[in-house]
Amino acid sequence: MPDxxxxxxxxxxxxxxxLFLHLAGSEVxxxxxxxxRGARDAIDADGDLQVLGEGxxxxxxxxxxxxEYWLSAANEGDVFWSEGEAGDYVNDLFTDSAERYGAxxxxxxxxxxxxxxxxxxxxxxxxxxxxAYEGEVPExxxxxxxxxxxxxGLKALINLHxxxxxxxxxxxxxxxQLGDELTNDQLLQYYPELIPL
Length: 197
Hints:
It is built from 6 helices and 5 strands; from the N terminus they run H-E-H-H-E-H-E-H-E-H-E. By secondary structure, it is an alpha+beta fold. The longest helix is centred in the N-terminal third of the chain and has 17 residues, at 29-45. The chain is globular and about 55 Å long.
């Protein structure tokens, strides 16, 4: 009932949404390149939503092309009628995503100095996408723990960018650095919400 009332009086509906997608296999490491390039572009863009949206589109398209590596997923979110409350929830999700194993980036020049010459290839990658948007998007406001729903959800994220409805975009991923590994035990410990697809 509150949704109908808020729509009638013309209040803006904000949705904050977070998607977890676990990719597994010997060929998932190149996805880290797309993720790291997007992270560097995001830092350089200093919060420019157009640049962040273009990075989100590239990431979603890459994930859609890599569906044979999808192993598990989860999503969560909430609806707000106040931009401030939506912003607070975005910040909470940002903090939670950043605190999970392997989601911290280090772009300092010294970070590469002590790298071993042989680097283990990760077999697990978890991508965490958090967005805030205006309006209703049924493809995102449902359980995305099945392959077809997840494909529709990623396409809906792309469409949100082109419709200029995105208000916040954050992407975290683990492992965040080349040479780091995300083990199966770490997956269970740090990403317990993942549901097999």
